[in-house]
Amino acid sequence: MPQWFDQYGRDMRTRDEREREETAGPTFRRMFLSAFVIAAIIGLLLGIVWTVAGLWHVHVSRLF
């Protein structure tokens, strides 16, 4: 058994320690990083589209 359990299997950590581990656990970290990466990709794609649209407007609209 992990060190924070006593001989009877009871969790000896404080409530604060348990909540902190649950809040910043590996699942939360993975979900947070996934959301951050997805937001970064969407932002990058929007930036590329915005730039291409601006260049298209400036250069191609002069031809017509």
What does this molecule look like?
Helix content is 69%, strand content 0%. It contains two helices and no strands. It is rod-shaped. The mean pLDDT is 83.
Order of helix and strand elements from N to C terminus? HH
Shape: rod-shaped
Mean of pLDDT: 83
Tally the helices: 2
Helix content: 55-70%
Uncertain stretches of 5 or more adjacent residues: none
Task: Give a short account of the largest sheet.
Answer: none
Number of strands: 0
Primary descriptors:
mainly alpha, single chain, rod-shaped, 64 residues, 2 helices
Task: Characterize this entry briefly.
With 64 residues, the chain is mainly alpha-helical. The chain has helices spanning 15-23, 26-60. The mean pLDDT is 83.
Protein topology:
Blueprint: H1 15-23, H2 26-60
